[in-house]
Amino acid sequence: MLFFPALKVFMADFDRTAHVPNDVSPTAGAHHWLTALPVYNEVAYVDDVLDQVLRHSDRILVVDDGSTDGTAAKLDARQAALPDRIDVIHHPQNRGYGAGLQSAFAYTLQHGYAGIVTLDCDGQHQPHRIPSFIEAAKSADIVSGSRYLEKFEGDDEPPAERMGINRRITAEINERLGFELTDAFCGFKAYRAEALRAMTITDNGYAMPLELWVQAAAAGLRVIELPVPLIYLDLERSFGGSLDQAEIRLKYYNEVLEQAIEAVRESREGR
């Protein structure tokens, strides 16, 4: 059963989640878009990732979420060398993945960009795909990367518990919100500025995408998925504290999803 009944009418005009091929061509207007990277303790990857992103994006924002491993100093040096292309926001303390994206969204709107492409700074996302995300956003409000939509040569084998949780949460989102997603958690995305204005993201942690999907459904935003390779360079990456335990993380994700749905319900009832 769909949580938002209006989606049934909206879906009559087009598929809520479409899938686009991997060979879309770059857009000439890419310079009107911002590329943003939320970063926390990525000293081993940040220089190489920035070098690659610079080849495919004219303007980059890096949100340093309280790094303590030397990442912050590297970012300041890169910004000083290319002040017209790289901006850096420093969070004094680690606030979480969602908090980093909130800062990036606010910056996008404050500076008048047409939209934003987000990707992680741990080497899992390929910057040469940035133009394809921008091109796909011509026909969508949100373009979401999917690691499970298409098989790429050389794909890594995902950790079983991570893939299992992703599939369970993705299925729950599809059933309750009317989407047809294949990957609810991929951080490689493109958002049109209009989509950012339609949402108010408050979750600071890794569950932020769940709040995003609820608000996107409530706002009637169109979502399409773009296939991306499945790359895992750090199988020991931590989610933080007890969230490294799969069952606890799954319970937490379900709680955040329920809270996000309830918040939308209360907002509608309060109008």
Characterize the structure shown:
Helices cover 38% and strands 15% of the residues. It is of the alpha/beta class. The chain has a single domain (6-269), classed as Alpha-Beta Complex (Spore Coat Polysaccharide Biosynthesis Protein SpsA, Chain A), CATH 3.90.550.10. The longest helix has 24 residues, at 246-269. The protein is globular and about 50 Å long. The two termini are 24 Å apart.
Overview in brief:
Keywords: Glycosyltransferase, Transferase. With 271 residues, this protein is of the alpha/beta class.
Q: N-to-C terminal Cα separation, in Å?
A: 24 Å
CATH homologous superfamily annotation: Spore Coat Polysaccharide Biosynthesis Protein SpsA, Chain A
In sequence order, what are the helices and strands, one letter per element? Answer: HEEHEHEHEHEHEHHEH
CATH topology description: Spore Coat Polysaccharide Biosynthesis Protein SpsA, Chain A
Classify the beta-strand content into a percent band: 5-15%
Strand order of the largest sheet: 1-8-6-7-5-2-3-4
Number of helices: 9
Total domains: 1
Task: Looking at this protein, list some descriptive labels.
Nucleotide-diphossugar_trans; Glycosyltransferase_2; 15% strand; eight-stranded mixed sheet; 271 residues; Glyco_trans_2-like; Spore Coat Polysaccharide Biosynthesis Protein SpsA, Chain A
List the helices and strands and how they pair.
Layout (H helix, E strand, L loop, with lengths): L5 H5 L6 E3 L13 E7 L6 H9 L5 E6 L5 H11 L4 E6 L5 H14 L4 E4 L11 H7 L5 E5 L13 H18 L11 E4 H5 L10 H11 L4 E5 L18 H24 L2
Parallel strand pairs: 1-8, 2-3, 2-5, 3-4, 6-8
Antiparallel strand pairs: 5-7, 6-7
Helix pairs in contact: 6-9, 8-9
